[in-house]
Amino acid sequence: MQIVDLHCHSSASDGLLPPAEVARRAAENGVNILALTDHDDMEGLPDARAVALEAGMLFINGVEISIEWGGLQVHIVGLNFDDRDAALNAGLLSVRSGRVGRAQRMSAELEKIGIEGCFAGAMRHAENPNLISRAHFARYLVEIGVCKDVRSVFESYIVPGRPGYVEHRWATLEESIRWVVGAGGTAVIAHPGRYKLNRAEMRQLLEEFKALGGQAIEVVSGSHSPENVAVFSRFAREYGFMASCGSDFHGPGESYIDLGRLAPTPQGLTPVWEAF
Ligand code: AMP
Ligand code: MN
Ligand code: MN
Ligand code: MN
Description:
Layout: E1 4-5, H1 19-28, E2 33-36, H2 45-54, E3 58-69, E4 72-79, H3 86-96, H4 99-112, H5 118-125, H6 134-143, H7 150-156, H8 173-182, E5 186-189, H9 199-211, E6 216-221, H10 226-239, E7 242-246
Parallel strand pairs: 1-2, 2-3, 5-6, 6-7
Antiparallel strand pairs: 3-4, 4-5
Helix pairs in contact: 1-2, 3-8, 5-6, 6-7
The protein binds adenosine monophosphate and manganese (II) ion (3 copies).
């Protein structure tokens, strides 16, 4: 049986383990096909690839692009592209370049409610300073005792309507698909069950994504409930999307699901990895 994991993070973005460690852990967990999908950055790919190939896995280039759609932060995973593609590299650089300024604005908002030093504190948790993420803020807020764990931070802070959240201009859906497909890859909607969209809005996202050249959605995901899996299996069939699957592993102790420890993809769907 194939064990496939096409969504996970290393310390090149907001994961806890270096890229080589992620690949090593995936191999230990029996993964046969692995994609590393750091946020807006491909820096971790060479190290992860080297270990994955050494361990006999099929390694797929990946990235998780932050976009804004309908006022929400949505994630598009790119898979199996040429990581040397100039437009993809330039696009990801443009998305990354806004992150430090956003982090400074988040820090200023948190200072207004008496939580100081968040920019420097979050930066200390970021291995890659260009990829400062809300996950690093969350780890700092846990470190100084504001919240008991990262999950609680995302209930009370740094999410829409809560202190420390700031609006940000990410890439567009069209740009993200153009960059991935232009580099020879497949664009995938990450964890669609996580977005606060009603059915009509979800259909609109799926239709726009398809019209722009998107080909797959994550059906089985570390952030999907069994009900989400059933709903997005039906959508995949209806719209003719291939099915992707991924743990969204960020690190031991922080993620619900370890690398490769995913429920099977439901029958009757076309796995995105079949073509790899
Ligand atoms: P950013 O890309 O900087 O907006 O940060 C988003 C990241 O925060 C996600 O990729 C997750 O790593 C983390 N995150 C968001 N929501 C949650 C949550 N509810 N629980 C844990 N981590 C979360
Ligand atoms: Mn993350
Ligand atoms: Mn995501
Ligand atoms: Mn992710």
